[in-house]
Design a protein that fits this description.
mainly alpha
Length: 148
Amino acid sequence: MALSTTKTKRPLSFTILGVGFAVIGAFTLLNIAAALVQFHVVREWAVAYAGMDFLIAYGFITRQRWLAWVTALNCASVVVIAAITLSLGTITTAAPLIIGVLVNISVLYYVWEKRRLLAPHPHEYAAGGLFILLWLYAFTYTMYILLR
């Protein structure tokens, strides 16, 4: 019995999510540029978040396998940060945090349900590893700011 040579069709939603994350990364870059012009300082954590957004966009557009695991990692970190922020009472309204958590859970659910459409890619270890390094920096810096 021969293997099927039909290609798995890429859902348009992967491309839409990729473009959406690229736009979020572009807005983050605009914020970095504004801080540089106004305050003459570069926020390294913002560069890490922009890099994470662009890597997730790249992962969605190319349908890479590491996307399933890093969305789970990112979702868990958003839930932890939201729980700590709410428990410390450092914000006046919980609506943006709850919306962020729900969006992250929705993206995780979608990626996990469609993970069979994710494919191996020659650069998947480099992109996934770079995402994890950026995530480690951004998460530890955010936790440092919250808990100091």
